[in-house]
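<goal> How does this chain fold?
<sample>
Here is the protein in question

***
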Amino acid sequence: MKKFILGFNYWPRISNIKMWSRFEIEEIKRDFELMSELGINTIRAFVLNEDCADQLGNLKHDCKDKIGRFLEEAERHSIKVLLTLIVGHMSGKNWNIPWDSDNTIYDKVEQTKRFVGDIANSFKQSNAIMGWILTNEISLVRVPQNDDVFLGWLKELYSYIKGIDDQHVVSVGDNVSPFSHNFLRPENVKGIVDYASPHIYLYDQDPVRHSFQYFMTLEYDKSSGLPVILEEFGFPTSLYSEESHAKFIGLILRGALVYGADGALIWCFSDFPREGDEPYLWEPHELTFGVIRQDGSEKIAAKVVNDFSSKIKDIELSSYKVPKRDSAILVPSWFYRNFQFVYEQNKRWDFARVLNQAFTFARLSNIQVTFAREEDENLSSYKLLIIPSVTRLLTTTWRKLLKVVENGSTIYFSTYTLTHLSATHLWEELFGVIPNNYAGSKGVKVPERIRLNNNILELGQSNLYTYSFKEKDAKVIGVDDNNNGVIFIAKRGKGNAILSTIPLELISSNNETMDKRHFSLYDHIGRVANIGQSFPKQDFGVEIQYLEGKGESLIAVLNHTWEDKEYELNVKVKEDMDSCQGVVRAKSGCLMRV
C-alpha cells in the first residue's frame, strides 16, 4: 500500500547533533516509542561526518555499528529512515567534513564516494531504509562556482549510489524549489534525483499569500515531472505561539496531501535542552522547532500530527490522482536556464514571489492551475495560460502562443518595460495593439489606479514604467484615470489574447498585504477562458483542493486566514473526516470524502 509519508527530521532530544559521539540507544528507543504513539511512519536522520568518517572518507567502525543499531531500532518501531549522508551544514554551523578540510566539496568526489558508498553497501538491505539523501543543504557549505559544477557533482554521486542500490530513492537533501539557487530548481535536477525536496521556511505579512507559497512550491515542483516530498518545514515556538505553530503544521499537512505530495517531514521532532551546545549557543531559535518540548512533553503540534495521522492511516494514495489542471502559469526559460546579458536572471527570487502571487490569485478565483515551461509541447492542452509580470520570453515562444490561441486557448500576459527591451515583436499580430511610446522614453508611468469593468483597482504609487498602446483590432477592457487603455483583449482564431500593461502580480507581491479586489482580474480572465469549477468558489482566503478517486474525491477545504470561515459544497459528503460541519477553523483544513 502506498501511504502518505509523515514524519520528522530527527536528532535525539538530549544528544542532539552529537548523537553519534553521545550515542544512547535507550534515548533513541524512547524517542521512537513516542513517534509511534504520534502515528508517524518516517524520519529523516543524519550522519554527522566529523563523528563518523576519517580523513580518507572511510566510515568509522564504531559509527557503522551505531548506524546498524539505530536502523534496527527504527525497524522495530515500524519507522522508515531517509538517511542523510553528507552533513557539512546543520542548523547554523558548517561542521567539519574530515576528507575535505577546506570545504571545497565539489572536487572531492572520490573521497565522498568512498564514504557514501560504504554506508549504502552496508545498509541497503536494512528493512528500515526508505532511501538515501546525499546532503543536508550542501549549498550552505559552499556555493558552487557555477551551475554545471554542481549538477555534474550531483549526477556523479547519484549514479554512483544507484549503481550500488537501485531499490531505494536518492535525493539531494537541499531546497529543490522555485525559491532556491538556480542549480537546485527542479527543471535542472530532474533525472539526477528521484524526488524534489523543498526545504521551505517562508515569511509573508499576508497570511493568505504566506501559506499559498507552500502549496505553490509543491505544485511547481510536481509540474516539472518529479515526485515531491516536503522535506523540511516548520517554525520555532520561541518566536511564534504554540497554537499558531500547530495550526500552521496542520494546514500544511492537509494541503500537501491534496496537492499530491508523497509526504511531508516537519523540522523537527523535538526541542533541545543543551543550550550551550553549538550551534544553539548562537542560534537560540534552533532550540525550539520541535513538536516535543525540552522536557519531553508534547506541544499542541504533536496532537495535531497525531490527529492527522489517525485521519489518513487508511488512505491508499494509489487510489487517488491529482486532477488534470486546465490552466497553467507559464514559466520563462530564464528563470531556470542561463542566457547572456539577461538582466531578469538577477531577480529570480523576486520573480518566484510573482509566480506565487499569480498562483494565489488563480486559486482564490477557483482556477485549477499548475505551471508550464516554454519548451513544453502540450501548451494547447490548457484552456488558460497565465504569463504574469514578465518582461521577456524566448522570441520563438510568441509564435507558439499565437497558435495556442488560434487553437482555442486564452492567454493572459501582464508586462512592464525595461529600457530598450520589447517583450515581444508580435504586439499587433497576437494582441491587436500598436506601440505608442516616444522613441527613447522609458514608457509611461504605471497609474495609481485602473478601472476594469465596474471595478476600481487601487495600485498605489510605484516606480515602474509600462507600455503605451493604440488598439488596432483589440477591445479595451481596462483603463486608467485618463481613459487610456491599459488592458486589452483580442480574438484570434478560436481563442483570446489578453494583454495587461499593468504588472499586477509584481505590484501586489511587493505590497505588505493583498488587496482583495486585485484578483477580480483573474475572475474575469477565468470567465473569458470558460474555466470549469468542480466545487464552488469560497469566501476570501478559503480554497478547495482535491484528489480524484474512483467514484469519489478526497478534498480539503483549506482556510489560509486567521479567522474561522464558513464553507459551502455542492456535493454530498460521504465522510467528514475532521468533523467540520460547514465551518473551517482559522488557519486549518477540513478533510473529507465526497
